Amino acid sequence: MSAGLGRRFRLVKIRKSKYEAGRHKSAVLQTLFASGAVNMEPPLCPRESGQFIAERSQDVFVKEEGVQKVAEMLYSLRNSDELTASGWKKANPLAPAPNSDQALNWVFVVDTMNFSFWPEKETEQCEVTFKGTTYTGYMTLCAAITRAMEEGIPITDPKYFSQISVEELGHVLRSDNKTAMPMLQERHQVLTEGGRVLLENGGSFSSFISKAGNDARKMVALIVEKIPSYRDEATYEGKRISLYKRAQILVADFWGIMAAREEEDIINMDWLTMFADYRVPQALVYLGVLQYSDTLMQALMNGELLSSGDRREVEIRGCSIWSVELIKERLCKLVQERDKQACGINSAIIDFYLWPYAKQHHKEMAHIPIHHTRCIYY
């Protein structure tokens, strides 16, 4: 560890960001809830949200033949490491060894800042080189955090990252080139907020998440209750819905570490859905599972920026969730009918397969645009 561990870190005043505005909006909504001016009905859970959206979607459609095709594809891989929770470390070689003390706090730091890596221009991507390999996209964050650990920066210690300055975080996340990682101010705010929550709840992610027992559903509820930046919710057709991409992937990563350690199982993992971002929907379109309307496809081809909560953005994410639920159901039916055994593959495992699949086939999928939304949720 560097001498920086014992330093007192000066908190710098930073400009008001969209994230702060969102927190202000939340405070206003809480006041309205208290007055009865707003319906206090809780949002639908992610799975119910996905179904609700898919049944009403105007621009995104789930294709039955694509669902069957991907279910068959996954069936052929059912006994491979690619479709197991223990494949977590293989899927991300930059993560610390699962048995290490830092593994759990590492996933908390990474998942708290796991959003919005797409570049303004494809030719101007943020890049981070670590041990001879140059990374882009989400992997730049993983490489930057692991690089900081090797440099002696205690980036996985909540006492440090709860007080880290914008300048210090900028150094941790520094790019090899002139293209910086997007949304530094927002990443700083969500990370320091998350660190303070951990310090108030035992001082580590392990202590914090233990309050939910070994129940994945309760873990997600705890995360979104205690940490505002994880409240990935919207209103669609007059209904409050939830997508909870980062909260669910944090629980799934925790599960992956526990599985790799061969420690106790976590119940209700089947409650989790896929993690609705901008990369997996692209793969689902490529595989014929999703279809965009001509109007939506043209808007995406033109590079239109969709705001968080835009109807089309919600439909892309919600239909992605529901389509993977249908794939899971079809896959498990195949396993039960052909193998005469229970299916242990859940939506999180399917997502763990589809995300690297999208990265590996990015050239073949280049003609399918991702949707562009700048937000802290994904």
Automatic annotation (TrEMBL):
Belongs to the QNG1 protein family. It is an enzyme of class 3 (hydrolase). This is Queuosine 5'-phosphate N-glycosylase/hydrolase. Keywords: Hydrolase. Catalyzes the hydrolysis of queuosine 5'-phosphate, releasing the nucleobase queuine (q). Is required for salvage of queuine from exogenous queuosine (Q) that is imported and then converted to queuosine 5'-phosphate intracellularly. It comes from the Eukaryota. Its EC number is 3.2.2.-.
